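# nightly structure sweep
# worker-07 picked up a monomer target from the shared queue
# config: single-sequence mode, recycle default, output format = structure tokens
# input follows
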Amino acid sequence: MKIRFPLLTFASIFGVIAFTWPLYFPSQSIPGISQSFLNPTSAKWFALIIAAAAIALVAIEINRGLLDSKSVALLGVLTALVAALRLIGAGAIGVEPIWFLIILTARVFGTRFGFSLGALSLGLSALLTGGIGPWLPFQMIAAAWIGAGAGLLPKRFRGKSELLALVFYAIFAAAFFGVAMDLQLWPWIAGSDSQLSFIPGGEVSANLDRFLVFHFATAMAWDIPRAIFTSALILVTAKPVLGSLRRANLKLNPISRAIAQTVAS
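# output follows
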């Protein structure tokens, strides 16, 4: 089976390891492993790897002729817009208007574009808000996955079925982001002597049970408002935003324009 997105796959595998290592790494027997992903130096390099993967995906699209300078400029504008939107919800529980635009843009422009938009916009927003820290690369890869996943939604959906699929995906994405961010924080904020604490070197099932209890006990105040807010924004804005993005895609992408002309004829 041919892998269509080897660079995206590599970055994602690296991200999965970074998120899930507390569940299965025997940290007591590997000195320093417990600090490998959550110290400032490692986080800096992790963020650079993710950003490099996002930029490389755009470069591949340019090399294949699927993106031109105008499309790259559009990615820059959308990245800046998503980063600016994050300022609106800074510090507010569940008020995160960035997700609806990442999802709708990736729906039109595809998996690679969505991955790049998610990663780069979260990185830029951290620069604007001063939110640079060990958590940043995890936010970048989680946002990149959400963008990539939106690009994988079936293209045959249109009208009400498309809107319904986008709303369900928004709810899933909101929950996924909460789970992902809790997973990378859980070993450090749950302490070491509670019933919810991470067990270094413990069985996967035991650690997973503890993490799930921890997550549902602490994250619902964020995940549910995020899901409601994102899905509501998609319900209100999907039709005009998708229409505008699709018109832009037809003008910028010669392949999409040719397909549209063929279908029309």
